[in-house]
Amino acid sequence: MLRRRTGVTFRHPFTLSPDIGELPPGSYDVEIDQEGIQASDRTAYRRVAINIYVETTRSTRTIVVNPADLQSALERDLSTGLGETGSPTN
Predict the structure, then answer these.
(1) Cα–Cα distances in angstroms (integers) from residue 9 to residues 32, 35, 38, in the given order
(2) Could you give the CA distance from residue 71 to residue 77 in angstroms, rounded to a whole number?
(3) Which of 26, 46, 52, 54 is most enclosed, with most CB atoms within 10 A?
(4) pLDDT tens digits for 15-55?
(5) What's this model's pTM, rounded to 2 decimal places?
(6) Rounded to the nearest 5°, which phi and psi values hold at 83?
(7) CA atoms lying within 13 Å on the CB side of residue 67
(8) 27 in helix, strand or coil?
């Protein structure tokens, strides 16, 4: 098992799924667990879990996220800040 930590930043409020509800903009820690798949000449990795950590002043909430839901939320956040020409709005 390979575990990798990274971060994502949302500039706008976002949702990952209807079950989770809306989350505020900000930076979030993300942990990705991958399982190695051995081939004869190389190793490939398959995501088995993605966790996003939502910190508040009182606690840290760990949310298990579908990779497609996280990717969609990031794409929606990026497109929210784009004007008709595809450039960031002020």
Answers:
(1) 16, 25, 33
(2) 10
(3) 52
(4) 998 888 899 999 999 999 999 888 888 888 888 889 999 99
(5) 0.75
(6) -85, -170
(7) 8
(8) strand
